[in-house]
Amino acid sequence: MSDCKDVQLNIKVGEIIMIKKFFNTFLFAIAFAISTGLVILVYSVMQGPPEYSLDENTVIYGQNGEVVSVERGVQNRFWVELDDISPHLIDAFISAEDAHFYDHFGFDLKRIAGAVYHNILAFDKVQGASTITQQYARNIYLTHQKSWERKIHEALIALRLEIFQDKEEILEGYLNTIYFGHGQYGVQAASRFYFDKDADELALEEAALLTAIPKGPSVYSPLISYENAINRQEWILERMNETNKISEAAMNQAKRVDLRIAVTASEQQPEVGQYFTDFAMNQAADILGIDRQKLDGKGYQVHTTLNHQAQEKLEQTVQEQMPSDSELQIGAVTIEPRTGKIVALQGGRSFDESPFNRVTQAERMTGSTFKPFLYYAALVYGFTPSTTLDSRPTTFSLENGEIYSPSNYSDTYANRPVTLAQAVAVSDNIYAIKTNQYIGPENLVQAADAFGLDAELPPVLSLALGTASVSVLEMAEAYSVLANQGWSVNPYVIEKIVDRDGNIVYQHQAETPQRRLEENHAFVLTHLLTGMFDSRMNDYMYVTGASIAQRLTHQYAGKSGTTPNDSWMIGFSPHYTTAIWTGFDDNREIERIQENRAAKEIWATYMERLHENIPLQTFQVPTGVIGLQVDPFSGKLEGPACEEKTRLTYYIKGTEPKEVCGK
User: Fold this and answer.
1) Where is each Glycosyl transferase family domain found (predicted)?
2) Considering only CA atoms, which of 626, 622, 623, 620 is closest in space to residue 654?
3) How many CB atoms are located within 10 Å of the residue 83 CB?
4) Which is nearest to 375 in space by CA: 457, 418, 416, 434?
5) Structure pTM?
6) One domain for residues 136 and 231
7) Which residues have a catalytic role annotated?
8) CB-based burial of residue 628 (10 Å sphere; 0-12 exposed, 13-18 middle, 19+ buried)?
9) Closest CA to 59 of 344, 298, 307, 380
10) Residues 233, 302: one domain?
């Protein structure tokens, strides 16, 4: 009996010891869990808010605020604030992905327990328990590789997100980082891609469909399987009803809507201003001091000087007027002289076929478009529109002993004295070379510098005929100085740059204009350049703008130029300067008439389209000049012998002619 009692006592003592051990282990486990939790919490606090950098589209805007282009990095993403997202979309994601989002601290313990239970029963991972916070952590910091290491990192980052961000910030970040398939990241990019609308415009049925996709874009994208997408959309609508986000009537109504997928119409349309956009992005990268490729995905807003209508008109005209059966290329640019804004730019026939920008990257011989610089120097030197020089075949002896024998177009000469006014209008080469010889080639180089040409130019006689190579943009700038009444012009394309946080990181500051050309001389030259469109100047040669003059309804000043390999037309109104160059990339000769005429035809058609809604305006006449009716052939004042041939001509006061025709 005693032995039995001893055994019972030993059993009870053993039970007490085991209970004590279990209790101690339990207390230790609790203490360990609490201490581990405290360590993790302290560690998370000490680590601070997680830092991250996401690719976000850089958007280029025109001068009126319209979107010109969207430059993408690795991902197509537009970040939008929570207020700019449809409430239906927010409710759909919370119902489908994390119904207790506002109640937990990053982890839904009840949901985790349920997922573990069902996974054990199924001997497989049939349920997930990731909260929106955990998914957000995974989207921006981690890969989707399934490993314990990744899970631990995800949990730590999710905890830091919950500590340092409020629920709205987490939800906003989550909705902007989800992948929707087909390269689209975030709800804004997905809304535009699938429905061609912004995220705040989505209807209930559209929101539910978008919410269905991230579960598995390769399975639930409506472009891959419309049936799968709709099945999951209906499940999401039911979840929204279960979580009291929508009524049963709203659910049933949404299920009945036959959705049409748009796949962003803008994605299917050719982009306007690709050469301009590329140039602007390169300029922006230089301004910010970052790599051009990095700029694409940094989420900047780049506001430019592009006039969308002007660019469209330029591209339309180029497409219509360039010979379709030719490899002829083009460089064209339009500048607003008063401000320096580059409002349109076309660097070639097709950016997709050749992104080389012939406006900014190529330098070509300018031909007779260089002559205005010469004649400005001549006016300063004392020439007037009535100054005459002989136009006849002439041989010039150069300083090195060589002989130089320039010729006029088609070897046509007046074989008599011609006035400066007529020589400009018909582009007489002999007159130009004689003028350069008279004033000195060094003075021509200085005049070109005054117009803003920075190139190293040789002080030789042939420079008067445009034997130097200059870019289209530089020539447009030089003519814009003349159009701006002699004040400096600094062409630019970037108005301001705003970073992804809304901070203005660059704002264009207009430079104080500098007087580059004397006002009176600049105006006299400008009016001389209107002569190329005036048929009254036709004589031994036609005026160089004869083929387009009848189509022009505004006052323009300009100059054409040709070399065997290049064709130019540069001209301006009081509003815009446009320079057009055409030629072949391999520098072969232009032989066909249609190819030779392309630059003028494009310039005339485009400038008229550009000015069609602008009131007629003439060039402003300064007080230091006087306008008189003058015979352009003799340079004499209107008289009995030339009443029908005279043309209004301007002179600097004190230099006007005194002799009258017929006396």
Assistant:
1) 69-240
2) 626
3) 9
4) 434
5) 0.74
6) yes
7) 97, 368
8) middle
9) 298
10) no
Do the strands 184-185 and 76-77 form a parallel or antiparallel pair, or are they unpaired? Answer: parallel
Question: How many domains does the structure of the chain reveal?
Answer: 3
Given 259, 283, 304, which residue is the final one in a domain? 259
> Residue 594, class by beta-carbon neighbours within 10 Å (0-12 exposed, 13-18 middle, 19+ buried)?
middle
Same domain assignment for residues 13 and 66:
no
Q: pLDDT band for 80, please (50, 70, 90 cuts).
A: confident
Task: Report if residue 292 sits inside a domain.
Answer: yes
Per-residue confidence (pLDDT) for residue 490, from 0 to 100: 97
Do 143 and 90 lie in a common domain? yes
Closest by CA to 177, choosing from 166, 190, 165, is 190
Q: Give me the residues paired with residue 298 across strands.
A: 56
Domain of 7 in residue numbering reads as 1-47
d(CA 400, CA 402): 6
Whether residue 220 is found in the same domain as residue 88: yes
3-state secondary structure of 318: helix
- pLDDT tens digit string along 606-654? 999 999 999 999 999 999 999 999 999 999 999 888 877 899 999 999 9
- Of 325, 353, 368, the last residue of a domain is 325
What are 83-114's pLDDT values in tens digits? Answer: 999 999 999 999 988 888 877 754 545 554 44
Looking at residue 383, its amino acid is F
> For 257-331, where are the alpha helices, taking DSSP H only?
265-268, 274-288, 292-296, 308-321
Q: Rounded to whole angstroms, how far apart are CA atoms 199 and 636?
A: 72
Query: How many of the other CB atoms lie within 10 Å of CB of 194?
Result: 27
Pair (104, 230) in one structural domain: yes
Q: What residues have CB less than 8 Å from 109, skipping those under 6 apart?
A: none
Q: Does 66 lie in the same domain as 124?
A: no
The kind and range of the H/E element at 204 are: helix 204-212
Name which of 189, 192, 166 is nearest 176 in CA terms: 189
Cα separation, 309 vs 300, in Å, equals 24
Closest residue by Cα to residue 162 from 105, 108, 107: 105
> In this predicted model, what pLDDT tens digit does every residue of 155-208 receive, in sequence order?
666 566 666 577 888 888 888 888 888 778 888 888 988 998 999 999 999 999
Nearest Cα to 536, choosing from 424, 396, 425?
Answer: 425
Contacts of 373 (CB under 8 A, 6+ apart): 444, 447, 448, 451, 453, 478
